Amino acid sequence: MKRSTMTALALTVSAGLALTACGGAKPAPGSGSDSKADAYAPVTIGKGYTTKGGNINVLMSSDFQTLDPGNSNYVQTANVGQLYYRTLTMAKETAGRPPTIVPDLATDLGKPSADGLTWTYTLKKGVKFEDGTPITSQAIKYGVERTYARDVFTQAPQELNSALADDGYKGPYSGGDFKAIDTPDDHTVVFHLKQPFAEFPALVSRSNTAPVPRAKDTRLDYTNHPVSSGPYKIKSYDRGRSMKLVRNDQWNPATDPNRPALPDTFTFTLSTAQATISQQLLADSDPTAITLDSNGGLQASDAAKLNDPKVKARTAAGLLGCTDVLNFNTETIKDPQVRKAMALSIDRSAVQVQYGGGRFGKLAQSYINPAQRGYVEQHTDLDPTGKPKLGEAKKLLEGKKVPKKLVYGYADTNARYKNVGTVLQQNFKKLGIDLQLRPIPAANYYTVLAGDQMPDIARSGWCGGADSGSVRTTIDPNVGPSLDGKTYGFSNIPRYHDPKISGDMYKLRGTNGPSEELGKKWATLFDRAMQDYPLVPLVRSYTSSVVGSKVRNAQMGYFFGAIDLSIVGAEH
């Protein structure tokens, strides 16, 4: 996965956390504290509800970036997309845990060839578009083809594409034959890969494989009415104002055990101020209301109201798969021991305060976590409570060439990121390092981090294992080598490349075998890489979202960072 695609998803969750409440905020419902056994436990409201009918009113402060599955790397679109499109496989959410990959339009998770270079999928019978026409393998292929037209769809997801043997294909509007996918008949889809990829079933859960009928493709205008293959279809859509979804009578529930499709309708208001959303949800002025806004739309001034028992009873909460880290530019801060000393000097507990305190995130000891498949215990000298180890840091720097000045770059839309820089300034000053703060326009932030203007230190976020539950989907993008193995990968922000460790990662990419076994090998290599301190884990997000009193099955999506629309229901 390339950071240019995944971070659009990951950071829509993690970079959107706007709360900067003081560290004294009490933990969220079910969160407890790090010392308790139930720390940050998920909380689901109205679990087990199965009655169909009613309406869910989704309050949002802004419109979707796009509704086109072929042009989307945003968690909000992925969340609502579950309602109107299906994919070959599906990442089924479980509160507080990485999603499970399950069959969706396909009959199973795919059949790999012996060498792992070919994956074959068979479509279920009886699946149709909203106009009643059958969903065919050709529509799946065409949906993938569109995502190669990067000159048209600038936010097209690329994780699947990067794994396919595409031979420079530029999309269906530029001519040429797309040889990476074969469709020998209307029900069979065959993918050809560059190299084995044990987690391939997760790649085809992305929106690339949402079927698109070629005759209905209106390119950029397709976002106004994507043709439904799911349980709901768009009845009306007034950009920037409102949208209404109604039942798709061509959807066959017998083919779709993953979506209970409980409400009759979903209505979206797309221009409500976040402060108003927060007030309406806390007051329960609309008992069928929810929000997809980050942190449940809560304002810092409203955080204490979560302790009200009546509000607490309506608050869904859970740990996300999203973790923020601090990246050290290994091309400018070259000595691993200097990087380690800097890492040990950081007061990560003070950084946590800038994230809103324990209510909104727990201190992370690693970029990967035990819930991810293939995890092995990670070794770190970072204090688990986040306190700095200044004495140990200074001892590591004895006899070392310590940089006198460094630059910390931060996205300029969020005061929290600047405040994190202020904490770092104070910490590094004690090591004799003058840290300068440099704002970077948020729209260009990751472009800058991938280019020649990468600062010495920069924060980033990643939803680890969010699409497959595998540790590889965190490790390889963030510290892995380039496609040819000769340097660091495109989305490897710290530019980490160790000849031995990175070489072993490159070899592991081409290894076929059980994902659990391969995951342990990835996690072991990651543990070795982390002894060089290319990055420092900061905070793993914990999100609370207040819902209306008639909302049921309100679960905080591990990846979505908001209420999972695929299972929610409403009393009526």
UniProtKB/TrEMBL annotation:
<dbReference type="InterPro" id="IPR039424">
    <property type="entry name" value="SBP_5"/>
</dbReference>
<dbReference type="Pfam" id="PF00496">
    <property type="entry name" value="SBP_bac_5"/>
</dbReference>
<protein>
    <submittedName>
        <fullName>ABC transporter substrate-binding protein</fullName>
    </submittedName>
</protein>
<dbReference type="InterPro" id="IPR000914">
    <property type="entry name" value="SBP_5_dom"/>
</dbReference>
<dbReference type="InterPro" id="IPR030678">
    <property type="entry name" value="Peptide/Ni-bd"/>
</dbReference>
<feature type="signal peptide">
    <location>
        <begin position="1"/>
        <end position="20"/>
    </location>
</feature>
<keyword id="KW-0732">Signal</keyword>
<feature type="domain" description="Solute-binding protein family 5">
    <location>
        <begin position="100"/>
        <end position="467"/>
    </location>
</feature>
